[in-house]
């Protein structure tokens, strides 16, 4: 697996003095300025992985497509099941990311599977244990979820798939909760962990983007997930109010070192701007649920009231 990952992710930069092969394997533009935009050789392993087809795919369809050269054929069903059992390993997560990001056929296959919990439960468990992961590992997991959440079928499926129990979730017993509700709870937990420890703006944005994609398709969110969503808004608004108050206090004080005052004021303004964006996104998420899925989410209304 590690050798495969090295092969598909290796990119050789084309140097100024290097002669460009003319057999059509490498793509380059002789008129382009290499200093402005570095050019890279095309990676045949990456291309093969991205064009791989399901072994159950019709041969006639493959021949009908404009494919140059032989097409790698593998069992998507076996690959899906194998990834589900191995996702606690970081290299398996990177392979899943490479497939979901690069191979449209595999991404479509994942989206039509009815047992999405096979892949999602290990991902959510790893996010639940975010304190044991590096920020890069958390990013990879979130980007996989973000890519999948862009599909409306996926968002509808996760809310309808009911889990009998979630044994690894320690804070609360979760029986007969939907996979969508569990995703909301774990993503909000990741946001709160990031606020207190990592303080990474892009990690926040990814989490909130997934929730925003899921919002209009929310279906019977659990009481716990609804309460967590409203408490997230409450926490962010309190932090925003505190920063706004701090900024006003600093504006009123006349400090001896004006430069230091300006630096502190700039830092506060930046953080205030970030929290303004976060609050706006959370309000959009809640608004999307109320606008498009109100009759199906009484628990959200109850939590807001």
From TrEMBL:
PANTHER family attached to this UniProt entry: DYMECLIN
Signal peptide: 1-15
Family statement: Belongs to the dymeclin family.
Keywords: Lipoprotein, Myristate, Signal
Domain of life: Eukaryota
GO cellular component: Golgi apparatus
Native source organism of the sequence: Eremopyrum bonaepartis
Protein name stated in the entry: Dymeclin
Any GO BP annotation: Golgi organization
